[in-house]
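Per your request, structure below.
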């Protein structure tokens, strides 16, 4: 058996150990350490695979990119895990099951990232989605949490049904569920072209829901607001990273860019997501709803990458530049967003922008960290977010995608306003209603804040080493 399966095996063993420990004795500290130990061992098993020769099977592909993306995914989950003990202690709920569900969701996302077949993709998707149902509704005593859990369960089931219908149509046409066979010329030909396009649209509809893209975005703000804070962080990062990697792989291997209707649909969804997400973000006072609509816009930006193969290109960029662009932007956005949620988990009583009034004068470290993260989301120079957006703009210019580039620039200008509004609230002179006396900085929280500042500023100011690593892996 290939060592590429070792990370998944380690996670499965961690889940089993957690179950055995839970059945023998409930202890929050033990569950926390078992989860952290499993995540650490999984990251080590992925780290040693980076740069090694890849392999593939019927269900999975382990190229140079797969272990790197899986490692990024595990790092994001680990950054959330660091905050979990203190945060769960503040909840009047059973703590131990949360780690179990998080591990299962992580396992499902790892399966999705490595999938090369609709069977493995769907198994990973359902393992992740069903775990998230429990994570979303974990605070069972809160009405908003119950409502969010029911919404996610129903809408996720509808999205999965759409994708299953699309998979069935493509199987009827191609006689295979492998991603590599979706573009083969020797299709059975029993279906007219419009039926195949309909199958692709069904799959895209389900994936657009998972990525909360327009018009499948109406659920995301309610879910972010109603779910526990750590769950919202996982939904915004873990779930969307796995879903986008699969969509990116299918689009490239399946040759979906050859269908003009599909290209037009994806372009329309990208433009609508950039503009609608940012316009709705302008109207939000609740921080979680603001982040929800911001995520719509950011993944609208990323859809530009899917359309590159369908656009003319000039000669001043390498053939692997689009791969470098999508990986850099994903890493930049995920690190920034998980940093924002990490800061918010240290301030559980902060719900709205008004609640941040005067934070800088009471907790400067938290305020400076959150300000840098907002600047990164806005794409301000010297942050990792700027470099990610620079890659996207350069790619769009190279492929002469002027309409999409115009929407990206306009959306970025709109987004800049509400990101800066958050910063202005923090540096505003404190009023009599501001109360930050309940905020306590733990050692884990302080170390994580310093790490976040280093990543956001370090990779934004000196991106060369990270860019070269991505370029090497893209050519691997």
């Amino acid at each position: 058996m290939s060592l590429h399966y070792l990370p998944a095996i380690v996670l499965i063993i961690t889940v089993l150990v957690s179950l055995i420990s839970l059945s023998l004795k409930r202890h929050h500290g033990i569950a926390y350490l078992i989860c952290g130990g499993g995540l650490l061992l999984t990251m080590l098993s992925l780290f040693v695979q980076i740069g090694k020769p890849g392999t593939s099977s019927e269900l999975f592909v382990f190229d140079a990119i797969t272990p790197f993306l899986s490692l990024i995914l595990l790092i994001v989950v680990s950054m959330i895990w660091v905050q979990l003990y203190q945060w769960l202690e503040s909840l009047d709920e059973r703590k131990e099951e949360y780690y179990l569900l998080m591990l299962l969701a992580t396992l499902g996302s790892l399966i999705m990232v490595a999938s090369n077949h609709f069977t493995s993709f769907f198994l990973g998707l359902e393992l992740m989605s069903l775990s998230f149902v429990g994570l979303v509704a974990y605070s069972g005593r809160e009405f908003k949490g119950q409502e969010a859990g029911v919404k996610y369960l129903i809408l996720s089931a509808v999205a999965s049904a759409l994708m299953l219908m699309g998979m069935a149509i493509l199987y009827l046409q191609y006689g295979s569920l492998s991603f590599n066979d979706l573009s083969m010329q020797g299709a059975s030909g029993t279906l007219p072209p419009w039926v195949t396009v309909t199958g692709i649209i069904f799959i895209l509809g389900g994936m657009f829901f998972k990525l909360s893209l327009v018009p499948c975005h109406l659920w995301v703000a309610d879910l972010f607001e109603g779910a526990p804070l750590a769950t919202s962080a996982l939904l915004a990062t873990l779930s969307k990273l796995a879903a986008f990697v699969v969509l990116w792989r299918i689009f490239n291997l399946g040759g979906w860019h050859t269908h003009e209707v599909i290209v037009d649909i994806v372009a329309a969804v990208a433009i609508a997501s950039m503009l609608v997400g940012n316009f709705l973000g302008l109207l939000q006072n609740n921080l979680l709803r603001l982040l929800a609509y911001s995520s719509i816009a950011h993944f609208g930006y990323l859809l530009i990458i899917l359309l590159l193969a369908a656009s003319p290109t000039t000669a001043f960029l390498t053939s692997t530049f689009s791969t470098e662009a999508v990986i850099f932007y994903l890493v930049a956005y995920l690190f920034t967003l998980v940093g924002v949620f990490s800061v918010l988990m240290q301030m559980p009583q902060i719900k709205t922008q008004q609640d941040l009034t005067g934070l800088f004068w009471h907790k400067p470290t938290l305020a400076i960290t959150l300000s840098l993260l907002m600047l990164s989301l806005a794409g301000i120079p010297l942050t990792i977010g700027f470099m990610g957006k620079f890659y996207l703009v350069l790619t769009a210019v190279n492929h002469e995608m002027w309409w999409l580039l115009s929407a990206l620039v306009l959306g970025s200008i709109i987004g800049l306003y509400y990101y800066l509004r958050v910063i202005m609230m923090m540096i505003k002179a404190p009023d009599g209603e501001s109360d930050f006396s309940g905020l306590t900085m733990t050692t884990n929280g302080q170390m994580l804040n310093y790490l976040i500042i280093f990543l956001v500023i370090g990779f934004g100011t000196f991106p060369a080493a990270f860019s070269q690593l991505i370029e090497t892996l893209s050519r691997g």
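The mean pLDDT is 85.

Regards,
D.
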